[in-house]
Amino acid sequence: MNQETIPAAKPKKNMRFYMRFLHNNIGFLIVAMVIMYSLSGIVQIYRDTDFLKHDVLNEKSLPPNLEVSKLKEALRMRNLDVQKNEGGIIYFEQGTYNSATGAAKYTTKEWYSFIVPFTELHKSSSRDGAHYFTTVFGVLLLFMSISAFWMFKPGTKLFSRGVWMTILGLIASIIIMLI
């Protein structure tokens, strides 16, 4: 008797299949974005230090006879602390201001030029072109978070552990926001 080979039935592709497929492919798509965004976020954390910054000498012509509060505003220096005032020249840690001529010479710490666009991702607004990147990236990360629940069958130890880890992450996030 000649038996014809019957092709095996194709498994039914359900929601779990598609979520795993998308999770896998989107995950590989955004790997470089996650690395870049996380590194720029780490740099942002240390923006109040001299990390990855260099000195820049600035010279500015300001109106003469400015009060210290107005000088802070004009130079955009919140921490301007006057050390002395001699002969109409105000000395502060970062530089000097000649109150007679209005000439200010001061040093600022600024990021190296290659780091600036890297860190601007975290400061993008809806008017910046980068907001498309950050919006799409945020949506993709949200999808990755939600689709992770389709990686394992409900009721398994791995799924249960994933749910508990999610709850732990939520609690940690709330605690960090309250601190």
Please describe what this structure looks like.
With 179 residues, this protein is an alpha+beta fold. The chain folds into two domains: 15-48 and 124-178, no CATH class; 53-111, no CATH class. 47% of the residues lie in helices and 17% in strands. It has five helices and five strands, in the order H-E-H-E-E-E-E-H-H-H. The chain has helices at 15-45, 68-75, 116-120, 130-147, 157-178; strands spanning 53-61, 82-86, 89-92, 95-98, 103-111. Strands 1-5-4-3-2 form a five-stranded antiparallel sheet, with no helix packed on it. Strand 3 (89-92) and strand 4 (95-98) form a beta hairpin. Helix 1 crosses helix 4. The longest helix has 31 residues, at 15-45. The protein is elongated and about 105 Å long. The mean pLDDT is 90.
- Poorly predicted runs of 5 or more residues: none
What Rg, in angstroms, do the CA atoms define?
Answer: 28 Å
* First-to-last CA distance: 78 Å
Strand content: 15-25%
Structural class by sheet pairing and helices: alpha+beta
* Order of adjacent strands in the largest pleated sheet: 1-5-4-3-2
Please summarize what this structure is.
The chain is α+β, with helices and mostly antiparallel strands. It folds into 2 domains: 15-48 and 124-178, no CATH class; 53-111, no CATH class.
